[in-house]
Design brief:
There is one protein chain. Helix content is 82%, strand content 0%. The protein is globular. It has six helices and no strands. The chain starts with 6 loop residues before the first helix and ends with a helix.
Length: 165
């Protein structure tokens, strides 16, 4: 059986490899593997909350609003890369600074703002460039991004404190 050459798969695998290498290098920066420990706390929290949102709460909403754009089968490699990068950003820009200052309110406020900025990047770009992109999807996504980022940041903050990180 001959496999066909697929540049997109190679590109995604390269990006995934680079990201894993980046995470490895970040662990050297933080003593006692702090980054990895925070990552192992934040990732399952984010995945759990986001999966409830995507598979139970908002599944029909997105299908109704964006059905004409949705793929039959999601690109799981791209989704995994998004989750890995997003959580790394949340830890680097939000959770670690909040832990350093010992302020859960900073985790909340910075997490909400991080969610706004990151989700706005996607949604406002789509609103500007995709024909018939629903404005309501942008609003719902921005609110969701703010909620999930704030919630994950605060939950990770408190669990890190509880575990003595």
């Amino acid at each position: 059986m001959v496999r066909s050459f697929c540049p997109r798969k190679i590109f995604f695998k390269f990006i995934l490899f680079c990201f894993i290498w980046y995470l490895f290098k970040l662990t050297i920066i933080y003593t006692n593997n702090m980054f990895i420990k925070l990552y192992l706390i934040a990732l399952p929290i984010f995945l759990g909350i986001d999966m409830v949102w995507l598979t139970l709460i908002a599944k029909n909403y997105y299908a109704k609003q964006l059905g004409y754009l949705m793929a039959k089968n999601p690109n799981f490699i791209a989704a995994i890369i998004f989750y890995l990068i997003f959580i790394a950003g949340l830890i680097f820009f939000v959770i670690t600074p909040a832990l350093d200052k010992k302020m859960w309110t900073q985790a909340l406020i910075a997490g909400i703002f991080f969610g706004l900025v990151t989700y706005a990047t996607y949604d406002l770009t789509n609103l500007a460039t995709v024909k018939d992109w629903p404005f309501i999807v942008t609003i719902v996504d921005l609110l969701w991004g703010m909620f999930v980022s704030g919630a994950v940041s605060v939950a990770t903050y408190f669990l890190a404190i509880k575990f003595g990180l």
